[in-house]
Amino acid sequence: MSSEFSIAEKLDHLFTQVRSAGQGEASYMAVAEAIRAQQGIQISHTYIWQLRTGRRTNPTVQHLKGLATYFGVPVAYFLDDDQARKIDSQLALLGTLRDAKVQEIALRAADVSPSSRDTIGELVRKVWELEQARGKPDA
């Protein structure tokens, strides 16, 4: 069974999508230290860099579990392209939710009546459906 996406591509995607507390991309050193300290798995920052850049392509299951746990994804993310696609779409949604405008909408909606929240939700759903029908949303 061949994989559409390499481990390097998947790991790179996790590094760029999953940010450490909104502070930007985590360093290889920080990831390795966290995996060692929190999970007791011996892994070096150099090895993580090698995996991300494709210089190493056959990680152990233990290392995949450590990376998956660190990034908050199931280990299947690295092994199953369908799972990876599903998780990537969820990560994209989380990234959108981090957007300040989306947060502002959510915070303002929290202070309106339940019927008004239903209306706001319906409007957002209709806009989403229109953009999906057109293809990609406007940037």
Can you offer a commentary on this structure?
It is elongated, with a radius of gyration of 19 Å. The protein is mainly α and about 140 residues long. The chain contains 8 helices and no strands.
Would you summarize the structure shown here?
70% of the residues lie in helices and 0% in strands. With 139 residues, it is mostly helical.
Helix and strand arrangement:
Blueprint: H1 7-17, H2 28-39, H3 45-53, H4 61-71, H5 76-79, H6 81-98, H7 100-110, H8 114-134
Helix pairs in contact: 1-3, 2-3, 2-4
According to DSSP, the number of beta strands is: 0
Instruction: Tell me the helix content.
Output: 55-70%
**Average pLDDT number:** 84
N-to-C SSE string, H for helix and E for strand:
HHHHHHHH
- The whole-angstrom Rg is 19 Å
Low-confidence stretches: none
Major beta sheet summary: none
Structural category: mainly alpha
How many structural domains can be distinguished in the coordinates? 2
Termini separation: 37 Å
Query: Which CATH first-tier class of the largest domain would you pick?
Result: Mainly Alpha
**Count of alpha and pi helical runs:** 8
Q: Per CATH, which architecture of the largest domain?
A: Orthogonal Bundle
Identify the overall geometry. Answer: elongated
- In what range is the share of β-strand residues? under 5%
Question: Any idea what the CATH superfamily of the largest domain is called?
Answer: lambda repressor-like DNA-binding domains
CATH level 3 topology of the largest domain: 434 Repressor (Amino-terminal Domain)
